[in-house]
Amino acid sequence: MTEEELRKRLEILKIEHRDLDAAIDALGAAGSTDQLQIARLKKRKLALKDQIAQIEDYLIPDIIA
User: Do the record's keywords include Coiled coil (predicted)?
Assistant: First the structure.
């Protein structure tokens, strides 16, 4: 993948991560008792966070001073 494609993918992942966060908050606020669904959403959100971190690490390499 090119750098531009990675940046687009990163933006899509960040949007999905925010959407999942909002969905989890909405379920919690609505008093949802479906803990399995909430757990699945949280697991997906964590996987997205890992993917975001990998892409960011690739795009922004560590600079050792």
Answer: yes
Say which residue the tokens 């909002």 belong to: 22
Task: List all residues 6 or more positions away from 41 whose beta carbon is below 8 Å from its beta carbon.
Answer: 20, 23, 24, 27
CA 51 to chain centre: 7
- Tens-digit pLDDT string for the chain (65 aa): 899 999 999 999 999 999 999 999 999 888 877 889 999 999 999 999 999 999 999 998 777 76
AA identity, residue 52: I
Distance CA 64, CA 6 (A): 23
Whole-structure pTM value:
0.83
- Write the CA distances from 13 to 30, 44, 64, integer angstroms: 26, 11, 28
